[in-house]
Amino acid sequence: MRFFIGNSDATGDKMGILESGFFSDEAKNSQDFIKKSYEKYFAEYESLNELVHSIFKRSYLLIGESPDKLIIITLYSRILTSYQSIYHLYGKGYYAEPRIILRSLIELVFYLSASINDPKIIQILQLRDENQKLKSVNRIIKSKTNIKSFQDKKELETIKNKIEDRMKIFEVADMGIEAISRIAKMHDFYITVYSVLCLTAHHNLTDLETHVVIQNGSIMGLSYGPTDLLLEVNLARSMEVLILAMKAMEDSFRLQVKSELEEKRKIIESYLVQK
After folding, report:
1. Cα separation, 20 vs 191, whole angstroms
2. Long-range contacts for 213-216 (Cβ within 8 Å, ≥24 apart)?
3. Dihedral (CA of 133, 171, 77, 195) sign
4. pLDDT for 267 beyond 90
5. How many C-beta neighbours within 10 Å does residue 219 have?
6. Are 241 and 109 in contact (CB under 8 A)?
7. How confident is the model at residue 64 (pLDDT cuts 50, 70, 90)?
8. Around Cβ 73, how many Cβ atoms within 10 Å?
9. Based on the number of CB atoms within 10 Å of its own CB, is 254 exposed (0-12), middle (13-18) or buried (19 or more)?
10. Which residues pair with 227 in a beta bridge?
């Protein structure tokens, strides 16, 4: 199901989608159609969401045990909100936006799993955070418009020196996301699903072609408004990635949900095989 807007629609009577896009009554009717047509997928998505929150409640009690666990649980909480936002966006018929969040979700799971497999990854995240602060301060210092006075510059130099001192305590070097994915034991995801989703996140022209309707070599119009394009496979991928995050949490916190995770994994795998 996709809305097709041809050249004549811009001047004709079919103005629902063109007047207010996803807020139009026409779009809302399509959203109801999507939820009913893919009820099985959305129901499974909701069921998995309940299971992951049972893990979240148990792990949340452990946040005071160590700074490392606090970071891991915080990463997990961001994973949960990303997962839920994908559900809402696909339910509304969006295409690119949930794919962009799915890419972010996969990246978060890279970091979570890598941090559990190798504690030095948490130090790398801390180092990267300090490095970003340093870059921001340096940009402001070099800017001629943002410095109001010499005193401001002196304060910024002091902040810069403190950041540089904190960075000296780290005995690790930063690394790229591909290296992180290897430590997470998810490199296959990096070179396949993640890389494809990067085309959407960076607005690659190849990905933008999904919005153009071409017939016999001629551009006939645009596909605009709610769509179910690749909905099943991307919902299934989101669930698959979340299960990997849950397995990492299970390994770290011994939460005793392996049998439940395996049951869910088999269901989701059957969805992907169907596609």
Report:
1. 38
2. 213/4, 213/6
3. positive
4. no
5. 11
6. yes
7. low
8. 20
9. exposed
10. 2
Whole-angstrom CA distances from 96 to 23, 28, 136, 192, 198 are: 17, 18, 30, 17, 11
pLDDT tens readout for residues 180-217: 999 999 999 999 999 999 999 999 888 888 888 888 88
Q: Distance (Å, rounded) from C-alpha 63 to C-alpha 71?
A: 8
C-beta atoms surrounding 233 within 10 Å = 15
Q: Rounded to an integer, what distance in angstroms lies between the CA atom of residue 26 and that of residue 15?
A: 9
Residue (of 93, 109, 107, 114) closest to 235 by Cα position: 93
Q: Is 202 exposed, middle or buried (CB count within 10 Å of its CB: 0-12, 13-18, 19+)?
A: exposed
Q: How far is CA 184 from CA 67, 112, 115, in A?
A: 20, 8, 8
What whole-number distance in Å separates Cα of residue 161 and Cα of residue 220?
59
pTM: 0.85
Provide CB contacts within 8 A for 205, sequence distance 6+: none
Beta bridge partners of 212: 222
**What φ, ψ does residue 118 adopt, rounded to 5°?**
-145, 105
> In sequence order, which ranges of the chain are alpha helices (DSSP H)?
16-20, 25-37, 39-60, 67-91, 96-117, 120-142, 150-167, 177-183, 187-189, 195-201, 205-208, 231-253, 258-274
Q: Name the amino acid, one letter, at 72.
A: I
Residue 185 makes CB contacts below 8 A (sequence gap 6+) with 113, 117
The size of the chain, in residues, is: 275
What count of Cα atoms within 13 Å lies in the side-chain half-sphere of residue 27? 20
The structure tokens listed for 125 are: 């995240």
- What's the chain's Rg over C-alpha atoms? 23
Chain position carrying tokens 């063109």: 18
Calpha distance 153→187 (Å, rounded): 44
What whole-number distance in Å separates Cα of residue 220 and Cα of residue 6? 6
